[in-house]
Amino acid sequence: MARALVTGGAGFIGSHLVDGLIARGIDVRILDLLTPPVHDGRVPDYVPADAEFVRGDVRDPECMRQALRDVRYVFHMAAYQDYLPDFSTFFTTNAASTALLYELIVSERRNVELVVVASSQAVYGEGRHRCGSDGDFYPGPRSEEQLEQGEWNHTCPRCGGRLEALWTGEAVMNPHNPYGLSKRDQDEIAVKLGARYKIPSVSFRYSIVQGPRQSFRNAYSGALRNFTVQLGSGVQPLIYEDGEQQRDYVGIRDVARATLLPLDRAAMHGGSFNVGGDRSVSVLELAELVARVVGVGCEPRVTGLYRVGDTRHIRSDVSRLKAQGWLPEESLGDVVRGYVAWALAHPDFHNAAAGAQERMKELGVLRAAATVDSSRA
């Protein structure tokens, strides 16, 4: 029986891949360290009993060496995500572990037939924008001075006019926060070393993935998690900036289907693919949808606070993945309903958003524009 290694296989995306691989009759080995903030040290109850579980660190050569034993497919989903300024951890966990994976495959002549890595939409930074007069740009991060004044939108560097956010394809990576930088490096390591050493490799650049099993503890888990734990606890959902930020949210089942495609489509090998919801939704619209699903009449609170490193608008063009026969099937309503039902029924459900916000304030990640009354934020 073919065997697959899923690093981070007890996590959000990884665990759904484990389910999909087992359903295909593939033997699965999970490698996961089960560390905070995503985990609490225990193996989650959704991890299948018929998957081999190994507690270990993807940065540890001996651990990885053992995990790769008799493996035909590798799905490298282990990652570090946070808003904290622990920059080295992003690169050692996300990029260096990927380099170690290829090092062991090449140096030990392992018969690995496919490597799939979890990249991110964060590699695009602000993505592609257009000025009606001066054409397309890939702007850098918004300046601190701009954000302090509550001026949220990008302007043309030539004429000063407002830029229109466009759908972003795979051609240009322009990350500007530690997570995005580390994922850009991971993406290039996989695709370029894979080509150099003839190891079929695919990188998936996930948009904001949402659905059941998303950790309550991780501040990076996304807006759906934040809004659900707040509204489910009778607290107003907090909206950063003005709430008009555009995003493309994608359901976990659609993501799992996409990530398993390279098992059957050799034409995908050597490529990087966006995986998004193929829809444009504002943060405020998402909060209002979650409130309706939870069944409370709590109005979102637009704070004017902003997180350092956040993008204004980012939406991924999924045309290349569609050409492989994939289409997103889950509506945003279905995604929200599925997550809310799972979250509210979970025994560990609690409002972790307040503590995460205070922690980000302490570290200077979450800041207030000059027009904001900080006593009310």
UniProtKB/TrEMBL annotation:
Q: Which InterPro entries match?
A: Epimerase_deHydtase, Lipid_A_modif_metabolic_enz, NAD(P)-bd_dom_sf
The source's superkingdom equals: Bacteria
* Pfam families from the UniProt entry: Epimerase
- Show where the NAD-dependent epimerase/dehydratase domain sits: 4-129, 171-276
What this protein is called in its record is: NAD-dependent epimerase/dehydratase family protein
Recorded source organism is Eiseniibacteriota bacterium
